[in-house]
Amino acid sequence: MAIEWKGVMPAVTTKFTDTDELDIPAFKTNIKVQLDAGVHGIVLGGTLGEASTLEDHEKRTLTKETVAYVDGKVPVMINIAEQSTKGAIAAAQKAEDDGASGLMMLPPMRYKAGDQEVIQYFSDVASSTKLPIMIYNNPVDYKIEVSLAMFEVLLKHDNIQAVKESTRDISNVTRIKINFGDRLKIMTGVDTLALESLLMGADGWVAGLVCAFPGETVAIYELQKAGKIQEALAIYRWFLPLLELDINPKLVQNIKLAEVHTGIGTENVRAPRLPLFGEEREHVLKIITEGIATRPTLPNYKNL
Fold first, then answer.
1. Which of 136, 221, 236, 301 is catalytic?
2. Could you tell me the pTM of the whole model?
3. Which residues are annotated as a binding site for pyruvate?
């Protein structure tokens, strides 16, 4: 399925049973609500999807189950976060075999590769697959930045098509547009900078709190796209305390707790993560419950 790099694409959480197996029924419950809200794609196995704890067979199961479940309604992408080029190429081939529409790719894990090594890594994977690739550029969390000069080289590969822009520098959206126009699509990847990035020209939003609040997230995107900025801003201002749960080391636990309270998820995480407890849990619960209590009435954003 071809990917249009636009709209809201949830970086979905991975659901686990009480015995630490994949919880496919709970996972599908959440995916259904995402589709009903009008999301434009699904991203599996990212940071929020607990990628570093997933076994290879679990990633493949998630991909196959999601592709079958969405049944062509939206594209399905799987994240690649590997330590070696060999491993990344193998992961890309498995994703292609399993029916994924595209890849989200982080730079090499653990080893802090130099610029040329990063370019070679992405280039080798791009040459090995027909799948379109979105490079996840998050130097804050992963300590490697893919610079404009590096993208200049990488864009020689036709299937490197988009960037998940998570540098936290809002002006980078403009820099990318100046240098590459529409050749490199921009999916903002920081929930607390989402509306700002969209207004500066980002094409879409790989979102986190969408996992618990899909309608509000898609409404913000559709409203700003339709030029209804004040309506989008009103929802975004309500949303911001919740969105801040995404820019936190315990974003997985935070967002899974929010999913529980909106009725579309479970709180199970995979060790070494633990569910929130004590004062930290109470603080996050307060934000979630206040958000739910003041949840805005959404306009008919699907028909703007």
1. 136
2. 0.96
3. 206
User: Who contacts 200 (Cβ-Cβ below 8 Å, separation ≥6)?
Assistant: 170, 173, 174
* Residues placed in the known binding site: 206
CA distance 97 to 108: 22
Is 94 a catalytic site residue? Answer: no
pLDDT in tens, 97-130: 999 999 999 999 988 999 999 999 999 999 999 9
Question: Of the listed 59, 164, 185, 256, which one is catalytic?
Answer: 164
pLDDT of residue 63: 98
Question: For residues 261 and 201, what is the distance between their CA atoms, to the nearest angstrom?
Answer: 33
Could you tell me if 289 and 228 are in contact, meaning their C-beta atoms sit under 8 angstroms apart? no
Catalytic site includes residue 164: yes
Domains defined for the chain, CATH in brackets: 7-303 (3.20.20.70)
Residue with tokens 């690739």: 133
How many alpha carbons fall within 13 Å on the CB side of residue 47?
21
Residues 244-270 pLDDT 10s: 999 999 999 999 999 999 999 999 999
